[in-house]
Design goal:
Length: 183
């Protein structure tokens, strides 16, 4: 099941990338259709190719976060009501995630990553994220946390919950978003 989920996630990310690039020169509906065609074709026609293997090696495990962010962004492009993240939220997420990565790499002598293997700490983290979502009126982060927990519990992805709800590319994504807001 993990290979199928990885193919779906890769297809969504390819769709998003093609949509955003082609959206620079064409309208949103056309760029989304083009992105969908290219995304579906890429994962079906080149499923066992060197290119898809390289993309999977570079980006996997995808988890829930990257495809969810891509779908959220494409939905916003279509005019769906998407609650934007506040700048303060993005700064806090960036700082916490950079700290998490530093701890995972041993720079900070606390092993937070190991908590992602244990059911009780994962349940507590999911509940905290859901409480934050309820307090802020946002459903995106709680949805990612709960879906990530579901995929993790079912054993469809990584054996660590953090791999389902985070991704190293989150750092450059957040930095770019924050820089574009500052300009």
């Amino acid at each position: 099941m993990s290979a199928a989920l990885s193919s779906v996630a890769l297809g969504i990310l390819i769709t998003w990338a093609v949509c955003m690039i082609s959206g620079l020169v064409m309208g949103t509906p056309v760029s989304l259709m083009l992105g969908a065609v290219v995304g579906i074709a890429a994962v079906t026609l080149f499923q066992n190719s060197l290119v898809s293997g390289a993309l999977l090696a570079l980006l996997a495990p995808f988890g829930i976060l990257l495809p969810a962010l891509a779908l959220r962004h494409m939905g916003a492009q279509l005019g769906l009501p998407v609650q934007p993240f506040a700048t303060a939220e993005l700064v806090v997420i960036l700082l916490v995630y950079v700290g998490f990565l530093a701890a995972a790499m041993g720079v900070i002598p606390v092993d937070i990553y190991r908590l992602g293997y244990a059911p009780i700490p994962v349940a507590i983290m999911v509940l905290v994220i859901c409480a934050y979502g309820a307090a802020s009126g946002s459903v995106f982060l709680p949805l990612v946390a709960v879906l990530g927990q579901g995929v993790w519990v079912m054993g469809w992805g990584s054996s660590n919950w953090f791999d389902e709800v985070t991704h190293a590319t989150l750092v450059p994504i957040l930095v770019i978003v924050l820089l574009t807001r500052a300009v």
